[in-house]
């Protein structure tokens, strides 16, 4: 019985023609944009810089390094108190913003894995996809689900990125330093850390939402729900099977 079941499963047959159709072509775009989304977010590292100049001329350059997943409250830095050259105070950045980016990256990775599996079915098991009514339905449901998840994760990460920017800007580093509260100490913020890569990740996230939302229609067209209301599609499917 096991041998019979194995024989019923179609063999892999490469056919790239589905990639010329919207359903397959958009899936390739989703695969690429998913990589861009989680790579631009997950691999980020930045540095925020500020300086403290005491009344006696002593200077202290402060460099604070931070990176994904942005658990900023675990990042500490030291600053002169200007009371003594050897006396420093230890401070921490504020906030733990790890949940939005981790959720965003997780969706990106799962999207990449699903697109890989879907493309294998499209180009290698197209006959199985056409003949099995449950595969197109499952594909449509998962496509709609990913569209929703990309909207939620991208919106959450956009807000999270705004919080990260506020917590890591040089003025936010200077603010809690006790020496900077005095009028005789000069505290100078450095350049704002470049975050173009993180901005791009948010853009890629919303582009993924658009792609998955649009592809939901093409996935729905392959389901029995749509074909049941279109007899012409059923006739065309029967003709393709006979060929």
Listing every helix as H and every strand as E from the N terminus to the C terminus, the arrangement reads HHEEEEHHHHEHHH
**Average pLDDT score:** 86
Beta-strand percent range:
5-15%
Total beta strand runs: 5
**Span between termini:** 29 Å
Helix content: 55-70%
How many helical elements?
9
Low-confidence stretches: 1-7, 237-243
Family: Belongs to the synaptophysin/synaptobrevin family.
Pfam family, one: MARVEL
Domain MARVEL: 18-224
Main location: membrane
Secondary structure: elements and pairs:
Elements: H1 2-8, H2 22-42, E1 45-53, E2 59-67, E3 76-80, E4 88-92, H3 99-124, H4 126-131, H5 134-168, H6 170-174, E5 186-189, H7 196-221, H8 224-227, H9 231-242
Antiparallel strand pairs: 1-2, 1-5, 3-4
Helix pairs in contact: 2-3, 2-7, 3-5, 5-7
């Amino acid at each position: 019985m096991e041998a019979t079941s194995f024989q019923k499963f179609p063999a892999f047959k490469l056919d790239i023609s589905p990639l010329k159709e919207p359903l397959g072509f958009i899936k390739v775009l989703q695969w690429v944009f998913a990589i861009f989304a989680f790579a631009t977010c997950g691999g980020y590292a930045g540095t925020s810089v500020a300086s403290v100049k005491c009344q006696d001329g002593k200077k202290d350059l402060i460099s604070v390094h931070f990176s994904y997943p942005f658990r900023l409250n675990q990042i500490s830095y030291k600053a002169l108190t200007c009371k003594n050259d050897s006396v420093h105070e230890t401070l921490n950045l504020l906030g733990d913003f790890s949940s939005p980016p981790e959720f965003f990256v997780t969706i990106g990775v799962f999207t990449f894995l699903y697109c890989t599996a879907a493309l294998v079915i499209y180009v290698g098991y197209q006959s199985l996809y056409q003949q099995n009514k449950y595969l197109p339905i499952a594909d449509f449901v998962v496509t709609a689900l990913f569209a929703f998840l990309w909207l939620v994760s991208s919106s959450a990460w956009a807000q999270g990125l705004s919080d990260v920017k506020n917590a890591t800007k040089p003025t936010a580093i200077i603010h809690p330093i006790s020496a900077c509260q005095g009028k005789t100490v000069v505290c100078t913020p450095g350049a704002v850390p470049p975050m173009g890569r993180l901005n791009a990740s948010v853009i890629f996230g919303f582009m993924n939402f658009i792609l998955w939302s649009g592809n939901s229609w093409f996935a729905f067209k392959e389901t029995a729900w749509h074909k049941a209301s279109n007899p012409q599609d059923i006739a065309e499917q029967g003709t393709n099977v006979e060929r």
